[in-house]
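Exercise: predict the fold of this chain.
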Amino acid sequence: MPRSVLILQHVPWERPAILGDVLTSHQVPWLSRSFLYGPPPTNLSEISGLAILGGPMGALDYERYPGLRDEADLVRSVVERGIPLVGICLGHQILSTALGGALHSGAADEVGMGTVDVIADDRVFGATGSTTPVLHWHYDVAEAPDGATVLASTDQTPNQALRLGEVTFSTQFHVEVDRHMLDRWLAVDEMADELDPPTRLTIQADFDASATRMRELANRAFSEFAEAVLFRD
């Protein structure tokens, strides 16, 4: 059986979306599962890459969600072995805190369309000083761990994206979301209730206005991840 990218999913509505599309287009096998209520894999030789998606829980809420501790342990093992890893939103926070970054709960209020400032030249983001539209949906802020390069920031969240070495990449914002997934989110009360009324009225149109640029960013990020997985295999 070929090795697969393991995608960790925390709630039913946070799905791989563009990430899954790009892996499939590169003929990279992948599977999704949750550690929150079940044991983690014990054989890393079965994993060709690791992706960690978002969710409403706190990255360090180990008492309510013991599986998050297993995810942190897995992150450390994956990074140590040089297995390609991508983290998104909660996944970005799990990566950062697992490697020693501090978590500031409720330090930001970024929900809806916005931008990030590129603060380091990068093959995915482009040149320092540019800005790119993104979909934000978070309140907690994770500091980057030692050794990481922060790629993008906002006033509320200095660590909006990072790289660690050649094969570890994560974003606080939702680079994986397409319009279909956004519509699914808006049908979930837990998600829709986090939007203020003006944002709720405009978020779909605002998303559509920036969808092409966001999809290009996602394709670059996830293609790089897929190619790292294929190169390592």
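Check your answer against the key: The domain at 4-232 is CATH 3.40.50.880 (Rossmann fold).
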